[in-house]
Amino acid sequence: MSSAETIHVDGVWRAAASGAQREVLDPADAKTLAVVSEGGADDTDAAVAAARRAFDGGQGVWPRTPVAERAALLRRVAELLQRDREEIALTESRDTGKTLEEGRTDVDCVTDAFRYFADLVVNEGGGRVVDAGSDTVHSVVVHEPVGVCALITPWNYPLLQASWKIAPALAAGNTFVVKPSEVTPLSTVLLMKLLVEAGLPDGVGNLVTGAGDPVGARLSEHPDVDLVSFTGGLASGTKVMQAAAPTVKKVALELGGKNPNVVFADACATDEDFDTAVDQALNAAFIHSGQVCSAGSRLIVEESVRDRFVAELARRAAKIRLGRGTEDGVECGPLVSAQQLDKTEAYVASALAEGATLCCGGAQPEPDEKRPAGGYFFAPTVLDHCHRAMKVVREETFGPILTVEVFRTEDEAVALANDTEYGLAGAVWTKDAGRARRVAGRLRHGTVWINDFHPYLPQAEWGGFGKSGIGRELGPAGLAEYREAKHIYQNLAPEPVRWFAG
Fold first, then answer.
1. Where is the Aldehyde dehydrogenase domain (predicted)?
2. Which mean pLDDT values do the consecutive 10-residue runs of the chain (502 residues) have?
3. Which among 207, 239, 356, 436 is most buried, taking Cβ atoms within 10 Å?
């Protein structure tokens, strides 16, 4: 297989039907990192046809494969991920710009996801028995695979997001076509190779590298696709939903967030507490240069500790070591693309024009031995004196920008935290256990952390309220997205009804 044969259809690696290719750029220096196939509508149709045949045609063996065998394949994939951990982490680091250590963490999290869904399905019972109120009726609700699944993943966590979709789809007995972001497709290609090595039957898993239009658009509208799962931006997610509507296919969307990190004064009562809250606020905002759907990009801090907190936060943010993610000592890598760099610069400019105070960052750093010229680097930025009317506070920036808002009362803190179109995640910091539970209960976000930020568990659902999307990934509900419920009602002693006179 040549480096440009990155489309996988019906068990065969191939180039795009058109012969088109795309250069994948290294965000650290804007140089060509790899060349991949630029798939189009024809490639997409071929991949869907293969998945369709593998699901319900003459080769449709995967939905009828025993659950134990499906689970065993997922576990083999998990083992192969750990075998190739360093290679995959390095690929993810170079492609996305994140640090190598973050890449390794991603591989471990992907491994956990495959193992979790393998365990989940193999430990299930034979369906939910329903009491029909009669000894002569056996009634049970069973779950069957949806069918052909279109899995469209984002550029910031390509490997992780692919696993959150592929693992439950396969565990449930579906076939799929995965389309990674054209910006960061390389780790998904590696994952597909591992699936093949693990023994995935031809046609069950298919991969098309290419742009959202036409590949993602065609998948969303395709009449032979039964479900489309999309993770990405709000505008693109809206288009996916509109394209899927005429065929009334199932849709699952994770569309990001504008996530509050609420810090009460009592969480900073001691020097140790203060240090922890500041450190966690840095992690919340600047991991992967803020290119995280759950990034704590809105710091909402109690007024009495605001000045001290922001001053220390800005001091530490200014010392974050930027550079190529594979370099030793680097804490934060570049943004993923020139487009993302331009957007970040525009958000900072608009914030300053609307009255925000720049505490640190706000510009590209000078090149040095760890930051090559031409790379998409942007200094971690803290903006004080922000308010909800500002564009930088309302919109998902997806860059290393942290805005600061203040509150005086608990009610005001909750109101600020919920004053967003999104509702993916949020956090509350306090030593008051009662307050922690009250605020967590009132926050309209799919995940709420108390005295922490960012951890997730494969066994717990992930998803958001409002414009953060519909449906859930991970957990039992994440498996349910890839299933249809069927009620089977069996009359054990049939007899005439005598409804009609005859």
1. 13-488
2. 82 98 97 98 98 84 94 98 98 98 98 98 92 96 97 98 98 98 98 98 97 97 98 96 97 96 98 98 98 98 98 98 96 97 98 98 93 96 97 97 98 98 98 98 98 97 97 97 97 95 78
3. 207
